[in-house]
Protein: Arginine biosynthesis bifunctional protein ArgJ
Organism: Sphaerisporangium krabiense
Amino acid sequence: MSVTAPLGFRAAGVTAGLKQRGARDIALVVNDGPSRAAAGVFTRNRVQAAPVLWSRQVLTGGRVRAVVLNSGGANACTGPAGFQDTHATAEKVAELLGDSAGEVAVCSTGLIGERLPMDLLLPGVEAAAGQLSRDGGLAAADAIRTTDTVTKISFRRGEGYMVGGMAKGAGMLAPGMATMLCVITTDADVPAAELDRVLRAAVSVTFDRLDTDGCMSTNDTVLLLASGASGVTPAPGELERKVTEVCADLARQLLVDAEGATKAIAIEVVGSASEADAVEVGRAVARSNLLKCAIHGEDPNWGRVLSAVGTTGAAFEPDRVNVAINGIWICRGGAAGDDRAKVDLRPRDVTITIDLSAGPHSATVHTTDLTAEYVHENSAYST
Amino acid sequence: MSVTAPLGFRAAGVTAGLKQRGARDIALVVNDGPSRAAAGVFTRNRVQAAPVLWSRQVLTGGRVRAVVLNSGGANACTGPAGFQDTHATAEKVAELLGDSAGEVAVCSTGLIGERLPMDLLLPGVEAAAGQLSRDGGLAAADAIRTTDTVTKISFRRGEGYMVGGMAKGAGMLAPGMATMLCVITTDADVPAAELDRVLRAAVSVTFDRLDTDGCMSTNDTVLLLASGASGVTPAPGELERKVTEVCADLARQLLVDAEGATKAIAIEVVGSASEADAVEVGRAVARSNLLKCAIHGEDPNWGRVLSAVGTTGAAFEPDRVNVAINGIWICRGGAAGDDRAKVDLRPRDVTITIDLSAGPHSATVHTTDLTAEYVHENSAYST
């Protein structure tokens, strides 16, 4: 269903030859309206790819007619020439649609530092425009894959409207690695300012709480486009709930497909003095290579949890922290608790619960284990 | 030579049975004076092991008669009972030396969260006291090893005085993993306040600039003891230079022995607006798992350098950053520079130079590559 589940959207995914293996590498998503309201959230990395610089500018207008995405090259660290390539790509889409380039967002993913082969890309964009259809959502989702082993799509049905989405990323957010791209569509009729609020709220509790390798990409982009084709304006909070569900579903798919991962680890921080404290603690634990190795080895090494908690500025007293792994409270009051032999770490899903005993707040951060396969995949990526 | 190279020190290393493999596991270093001036630097982790809590208190007095160190258990996250174990260990040393426990520092390293077997440890301390000698420095250095594959010792000769040292840690500082312990001795005659200044200055440019896995230990301790036995008080700056050399030498040994590492990576940040900016950038790059995997795969992936630089708050403009790997400027002005095929990444030593073009300052941070062996070693450590 993907981005074409809601009314008013067409999409396509084609092979332009940017990737060596002959797979699809250009996706196009077009909003046929009647509305073009849109919002975007971008990487916080200060080194931003040309398409991010371009699309941020487009989104300031709050209107998007089309999004063109390519895999096979990130167009990051490519200087003014790379920015011109992004501009030319948007102009090409605008020309094909008879519209304005100022309302065409561009996303790219792949290796950093290499120019895109425009002689292949522009004909690919033309081919994609020729194949736009109401059934094109799956092909578009397929075309944005890099090291992703599966396409990632989601949709939710609201009261008289739909929300659909596609994403790529296999390894991720801080916001993260190898680039995470996501396009979400809805046929609800909602102004751009409200879309912006909804998208930021949804991303802050989904993609922003996924941290598989602590690496932040130059290209991360999440877009939300509304066609208004259903004529329905959801009740306040209703659209946010649906968009959050789609984001959470896609985030889960990214997590499960993270490079080399064999475990999906949920780090639940409870009893914190604030939600920000809980997120800080969850993220510190999610970034501990030592802990991620231990979980890979099915070793309930709670000492590595505590030593990561201790690197944060969160409010807590070391001798009041409790830690459970898969429900067994193996650390109580900052020291050994229940028998660690009772912890069953064989399932793929692992939950680490950290009770800071410092307040009523909580948050969950998701990560993966660190494996030899991750090392292998990322040692061999560009060569 | 180790910690007994300077006059006034005796040491021993014995087997108490704390480790399973029958290796030495208790070290004792005694300062016979005439001075007992001392200084210490400890982990910044908020979760601190019992011996760190104890030794910090001892060092506030600026005097240390002896340091007792054990491998085979970190005595971290062991609650009040663990603190009593540390206290009892110091009391035992004091009793054996006919001295005050308030001037006995304690260091522990090994697994977090388990009580030390005091029935084995205290007889080991007694045995160590019985074997104290002017030749004991090497045995002491051997006794503090955990996953270290070699003993780490160093010494430098000053004008009429000596500086010696031993360290353990195989993976490291943020300050870091698996615990880094270091004892430095000198027979120079220097008051405690000056030792404190010297040690902080030396650590800040050596151990603090080593970051192999971003993980900060609960037990890291660096001690500097002065016996005054040479009767020499070095000229200002002279002792700092020698202590810094010993720290740098030991830091290098830690780096080369880091768990699973096949590359020693120096991240030289130049052209920064401040030294702090240079350290922040160096550390961010040192913590990029993606970059560390790329270097392991001998892939000069400068895009991963730039994306790590972009996560910092340092002053720089993305389009003015230059990056060289092993002397080849493959990124100029934030975009592709010289041919990446010219970069030879086969040597063990790798230098990544990052020119921020933002000022006259610089700093170098040292790290290692990320390998499947690191994952293996840390998946299997406690089980």
